[in-house]
Every structure is written in C-alpha cells, then in structure tokens.
Fold each of these.
Amino acid sequence: MVEPVKPTIDMPLDEALQELTGFEVIGSQKHYGDQFEKLGGIRTLCAAVWAWENRTAKVSWAAVEGRTLRELSGYFAERDPLDEQGKADGRTPSD
C-alpha cells in the first residue's frame, strides 16, 4: 500500500493559485510558452508547485516536472468536503 503524501501547503490548489504573484504567473507562461489560463491541469499543477517552492528555495523546473503525479497533487491540501457541502446549500461549516 502506498502512503499518502502529506501536503506541503495547507490550502487546496485552487486557493493556492489565487495567491500566485504576477511574477510567478509570468515565469510560468514564459516556461510553457502559453497563457496561464491555457496551461491545462498538469502544467498548471507543476507551475503552482514551482512557484510555491521558489518562495523558500530556488527549485528548477526539471526538479518539479520530474516528480510523480502523486507527489505533485499531494503538495496541496484536499478541499474539505464539509466546506463544499456548505457552499452548495448556503450553510457555513459551523451551522
């Protein structure tokens, strides 16, 4: 049995993407040669990991792209299903 990867960033990917700086977005666009919105799932995931890791230590694109999908997707926390349910029916998790 494969052990789950412990998240490095304590927020879901969609929230982490909203926290990227303009410089990080531009760097990702330059690396992939496309607009950030057109990168697709895996390239967006790699770009997010690259950007977040570069905040604390320089990491190469090759180092990020050489990781497994399990490692990349496990980098960010899972969205809390109770949060999603509350949004769907208009309640907050404390209701």
Amino acid sequence: MSWWMYIIVVVILLLGIYAFIELVGWRTRWLNRKTGKTAESMYGNYADSKQKQRRYARDHGGQWRDDEPGPRAPVEPPEGR
C-alpha cells in the first residue's frame, strides 16, 4: 500500500466516527425532546373502568377517590419543531 492510501483510510475512518457521533447525538436529542403530553392526559386512554379501579383499591387496602386531579398548567411544546 502506498502512503497516500494510509491517509485515505484514516480520513474515511474519521468521517465514519464523526457521522456515528452526529447520528447518536441527533437521536438522543430527538428522543429526549419536550412534549405536551403528561401522565394525566394519557391516563384516560389506558385506565381500567371505575369499577375495576374501586375493586383493586379495596382489594389492596387502598381507598378510592372520585375527585378529578387538580388543575395543572399544560406543558407547551417547544417552538420551531
């Protein structure tokens, strides 16, 4: 191998490492972005019926409360996305 091939191989390896780091950083930022969803807003989609919740609370020594959760300020998603 000629000396210039060593340089090309090193440059290609460095570009590959840089591309990998950029891809991982972009994905991390994307997965950790702020959203407008809260546990309270998603809970209704996955909750059991009120009867099942009462029965579960009674069977496990808890108590059931019929009140709604208190008012909460909505989280605004970041602008520019």
Amino acid sequence: MKTSELIRKLQEIDKTVPFDAPIVGSDDDWMPPTLTRVYHDPPRTHLVFEHVPVEPDKDSLREILNNYKNGIIPLEHAVYSICDTFGAADED
C-alpha cells in the first residue's frame, strides 16, 4: 500500500467519525497500543506503537484456566494466552 492510499483511506474514515476517536488494534488486545511515532524511511512509512507491559497476576492466570475448564477457550488458546500474559518467549 502506498502512503497516498493510506492517507486517502484515513481521510475517508475521518469524514465518517463525528469525534476524535482513539486508534485501536485489530487483534483481541484489550489494551490497544498508542501510536507514538510516524516516520518515512524510503520506500516505507513506519507506524510505531507504544508497548505498555501489563503486570500479570494470579487472577489473570485463574481467569484463563477457568475459561479453558469451562470450555470457553480451547487448550491451544489457553496456552497461548498464558504465554502471552506472562511473557514466555517463543522458542523453536
């Protein structure tokens, strides 16, 4: 996607939003990142988002395990959520 196309799309979105809305992620992140910087390094334009670490706690783990136990999420999702929440690194 070219910068001009991105700007055009953002301007079209801006016309439909009657207030200054926050930018949010498109994944299942409950705490979306904040856009902190936009810069151009030809031929690419980069959007830099702030990473805000969340302090995991026992309640987070308990909620994930309860969701798995009650059939709300599958095992793979529970494992991913635990690794994501508690900062486990991906290893090959």
Amino acid sequence: MDKNCKIVLNKILKTENPEEYKLYFFDDNLKKEAEKFGFSVDEFSNILHQLEDDRFAKINPRCFYLTQKGVHYHEFLRTKTMKWILSSIIVPIFVSVSCSVITYIIMEKCF
C-alpha cells in the first residue's frame, strides 16, 4: 500500500461511520470526491483500484466501499509487522543464542 492509499483510507476512516461509507459512481460524484481528497480523477480512480487489489475495498459497477480489512487496516498492518519482527528478528536471535549455548556445552565436555 502506498502513501496515497493510506491518505484516502485515513480520511475515510475519519468519517462518522466508515463501515457504511460508499462512493456511488453516478453523475460527477467521483470528481467531487477526488477534489475532496486532493487528487485528480484519474489518480483517485487508480487509488481506489489499488485499494481493491489489496483487498481493502470492493468496487462494483455502482459504488466503492471498504471491506472489513479496509475498516480495520491498522490492525492488519500491525499484525503483519509483528509477524515480520518475530520471523526476521526474534527467531534468528533465539537460534543464534541456542547454537552458541549448545556449542559452549559441547566444547566444555570435550575439553
């Protein structure tokens, strides 16, 4: 997810009821909403499609709306970050310390 997607998601989440936020594609609603968010219509449309590709939102022929993952995207990102920290930092440290302890014990018994 890029910076613009986060900007759009955060602004939608600051609305009164983000679970019920819908952007209907009738008349010039897309243009008005793009201006409200500070993007061109093409850029805003690309952001909406990126959010759909990342499964934060759904787009049907009539409207755009957030999925459960989009409404609670901070928690999903936190979970993803915690998994990364665990698998990339904590587990390697544990393995390294364990190997060092085992090597030390073996060396003490041999000499």
